[in-house]
Each structure stands twice: as structure tokens, then as C-alpha cells.
Amino acid sequence: MQPAPLPRQAARTAAVFTALFLVLLALVAARWGPLEGVDRDIVVDLHRSAVEHHGWTHVNRVLTDWLWDPWTMRALLAVAVGWLLWRRERWLALWVAVTAAVGTALQQAVKSAVDRPRPRWSHPVDWAHYAAFPSGHALTATVAFGLLLWLMTLHGAPAAWRRLIAVVAAVSVLGVGFTRLYLGVHWPSDVLGGWLLGAALVCGAIASYGYAQGRRSEHESSRGGRVRS
User: Rounded CA gap, 70 and 4, in Å?
Assistant: First the structure.
């Protein structure tokens, strides 16, 4: 296994994503007019297209409800956790599972606190329940693919495979965001919030795991030194 990325660099990146998310959260909670205006303009145009193009709308529903559904993303992570347990990498498996669980819990907590209404249409093409901000689809896809890419890097996967998964990840994370907007169940800032919070969680997991591994190595080295002396 290759060494984890530098915790300090990952921590700085996590701090940037967290700060950006908090700024966006404040604007959404304050119902800032310019942001709401941009949100509305984008989803109105997309909804008009969704109403007129039934075939394309059906494709987007299949993608968002099956391929990029949060439960599909969680299933991918469950497979990764099972593979890590099979390799007896219990500590890393726990880290991945806890990160995914924290992502779900944070998403639900923020939704409940902000309680932002979803877009409403006279002729809806899809339905979604609970509050809008942040997008659970966007957050879960970001966390799932971010963790999978990290695991591939940790285990020295060939560069060609990492590039392939990176392309799949980019298409999936951007694609699921588009489907939520096209189907009229989220505002653009909901999707952006899911991306930012998901990225902050992944970077935080990488940073904290690297830090914890460093402390474990130091502890084992000090124990080894005392035994030899």
C-alpha cells in the first residue's frame, strides 16, 4: 500500500471547501436575493425543456433514480468496505464507512436546519421529498467517488485505471447534479452545496486518516524502541 496523501495538504483543502460551503449556507439561509434570482432563472429554463422533451426527461429520471441514486453510491462504498475487510484492513474500512455515515447525517441535519423549499411547478416532471439544501444526490456521489479514488491511490492502482475512474467520477458527479436541476427537484445552489460539503468530507477523511496513521506509526516506533532498550 502506498502512503496516504499528506494530511496537512488535505486538511487545507478541506478547510477551503468547508469555508465555501459555510458562505453558501449563510446566503441560502438568509434567502439572499441575487442567489435566489440566479437559481430561479436556471431551473425555469431547464424545466421548460424537461416539459417539452419527454424522452430526455425519462433518461434523466433513470439516471438519477437508478445509476446515480444515493443508495447505488452507498452500495459501491459497501463493496469497497467489504473488500478492505477481506484484505484485513479494518481500520481503513472503518474510516470509509464512518465517512459515508457522517455524510448522510450531516446532509440530513443541514436539510432540517435550513428547511429550504424545493422548486414548485404547475406541471412537475418528477417529485422529491424533504428539504432542498443541500442535494443528497450530489453529496453522496461526491463522497462515494472521492473515497473510491482515494482508495485506488492508496493501493497503487495503475495510472490508466485511476484516470478512467476519475473520468467516470467527474461525469457522475456533474451528471447527477444536472439531473436534479433538469427534473426540477433542486435549486443550483443545492447541488453546489452538496458538492462542496461532500468534497470537504472526503478531504477531511484523507487528512484525519493520514494524521491517525502517523500517530500510530510513532506509537509503534516508540514501543519498539522501549522493547529494544
Answer: 27
User: How far apart are alpha carbons 98 and 127 in whole angstroms?
Assistant: 30
2 contacts 153 by C-beta, under 8 angstroms: yes
For the chain, how far is it from start to end, CA to CA, in angstroms?
Answer: 30
Q: How does pLDDT run across 181-216, given as a tens digit for each residue? A: 999 999 999 999 999 999 999 999 999 998 888 776
Closest to 167 (Cα-Cα) out of 140, 148, 194: 148
Which pTM value belongs to this model?
0.91
pLDDT tens digits for 51-98?
A: 999 999 999 999 999 999 999 999 999 999 999 999 999 999 999 999
- Of 168, 156, 145, the C-alpha closest to 76 is 145
Q: Please name the residue ranges forming H helices in 63-89.
A: 70-86
Residues 6+ apart with CB under 8 A from 206: 4, 5, 7, 10, 14, 150
